[in-house]
Structures are given as structure tokens and as C-alpha cells.
Design a protein that fits this description.
This protein is 45% helix and 16% strand. It has 263 residues and is an alpha/beta fold. Strands 1-2-3-4-5-6-7-8 form an eight-stranded parallel barrel, surrounded by four helices. The mean pLDDT is 95.
Amino acid sequence: VMQRFLLGTNWKMHKNFSEALDYTAKLRILAEAYPEYQYFIIPPALYLQELGKRMAGSLVLLGAQNMHWLDEGDFTGELSPAWIADCGAQIAELGHSERRQFYNENDYDLNRKVHAALHYGMRPLLCVGESAQEKMYGITEEALRRQLKIGLFGVVPKDASRVWIAYEPVWAIGASGVPADPAYVEQVHAVLHDCLVELFGERGRGIPVLYGGSVNQENCVALAERKGVDGLFIGRAAWDMEKFKTISEQLHAYFNTGKLGYG
Ligand code: PGA
């Protein structure tokens, strides 16, 4: 089955509430213009309740940037997966490199979160990526396989079809990031797809792997056209609606020449 190309953005700790409302209203319209993509947004958790109401019935999926794995407990400052799901979030982004770097998230806890997301009917969007140091030592493949195999441990093949993976090399993310070379991205996506098939058999083949890290209007097509790239996960370049629109247009011109999605 051919799936739609995935196009999404994590807002991180950006946008105030009125900006969030303005952006999402525009994105609803953009999504109607480009039904060939599955758009999704991952706003700050504080906005999920309102955005969940406003985005219900739209073509745009909604996600959370993080959550706890337990339903409730004495965990000051944490958010229950039950609440996240209640707000209408369909996606739980887990293990973004900033969470791993600055908040000590590890693969074992992320595995618990993956199971919690599946339990509440959400799609875990597990982010993996090698650091500059791991790349330098030539252990990119080992690092990624470790992140996938621990992060997805115990997921049964039936649930694997709800998993999304984002490949985001740590050295490519953010203002100080260096965009990854598309040929390198293709190589790494092949490693990730192979590992997913190893874990889940045929079901693993249907798991989309998105690329993220300094995606912009200039490089989006060169990245999207690479084999095994099933979507783009965009930070800075998608926070500005005009830029996100340009990216959508660029990809549209490319997709209309043949490639329609993944799978
Ligand atoms: P960026 O962020 O596009 O701003 O590099 C990507 C990400 O962190 O997902």
C-alpha cells in the first residue's frame, strides 16, 4: 500500500498561544491544498487541549513533544500519556536529541514511553541519530541499531505498523547544525530500514523513516528524492508558514514527476 509522504514539524519551545492558533489555522488550509502529504505538528504540550479541539477533523495530525510512561504518580512536572491522548494527540514524539542531551533521556526509558504511546493508541515517533563523536569513530550504524533495538524492544509486529522513526543526526540539528549530505542520508536510512525488517519482518518494511536536521527550502527535494526517505521532519524552516508553504510547493513539483509516497 502506498502511504502518503510525511511532512511535519516540532515547534520545540517556540510560539506563543496566539501564534500557535494563527499557524494551525493556516496549516489546515495548506493541508487541503496538498492532500498528497500527511502533515503533522508537534506543539508545546500546553496547547494540545485547545489545538486538539481545533484540529479535530482536519487533515493534520497532532503530537506531543514528550510524555511520561506511567499513567499517574508522584512525578512533579511530568505529563501522563493518558492526558496527552485525551487531548487528541495522535503522535508521541519520543527521544528527540535535545531531550536525550539536556534531560538525560535514555533508550530504556524511551522504550517504556514507546509502549505507553502504543497502549494509548498513539503513534510513537521515535527519534534516533548519531552524535558527531559517534560518526567520527565510525560507529553510526552501531549507535542507531542500539537506539532502535532498545527503543522498540518488546513491540509486537502487529503494533509495529503504528511506529514512525525519525532519523535526526545530532550534528545536523539546529542553527549550529551542518545539513547532512543526501547520499549519506540514503545510506543511513537503508541501515534503519534493514534493522526494522530484522525486528519486525514484513511489518518492519512498512515503518516510515523520516529525515530531520536542517531541512530547508533549498535541500528538501534532494533529501526527499533519496531512497528510503519516507518523510521530512522539519524545525526552523517549518515554523515560518511561508517557508513551510515553499517547501510544500517544491516537493509538489518533484512528486508530480513520479514518486508519490513510500511503501
Ligand atoms: P531543524 O530542527 O530543522 O531546525 O534543524 C530539526 C529537529 O530538531 O527536528
